[in-house]
Design brief:
single chain, about 120 residues, mainly beta, seven-stranded mixed beta sheet, four-stranded antiparallel beta sheet, 11 strands, globular
Length: about 120
Amino acid sequence: VQLQASGGGLVQSGGSLRLSCTASGRAFSSYAVGWFRQAPGKEREFVSSISWSGGTTQYADSMKGRSTISRDNAKNTVYLQMNSLKPDDTAVYYCGARAGSIGSMYISSYDNWGQGTQVTVSS
């Protein structure tokens, strides 16, 4: 499965963005999807994940209460709604897919990656 992340941009502190991860290829509904981010000079870190059905979600502590992950398998798309954005949220956001039902917070669990979308939050 091939992934493309989109929806990033420049937003002021306190603003919102909705990222999309769109997949091409077959059987996207059999993949769990995770969002990760990488800020300059830092390692890639977990943001959120969702199971193949959408019934199980996970969030990093830093994103709990400020973000919502969802998916529309008919559109082969996973969404990440982010609210109350802070300058510390500035990073390139990547989506990954892994075969299997449940998402993971570990980078090595994902076999397929999109190219990333830049999110910049100004103070």
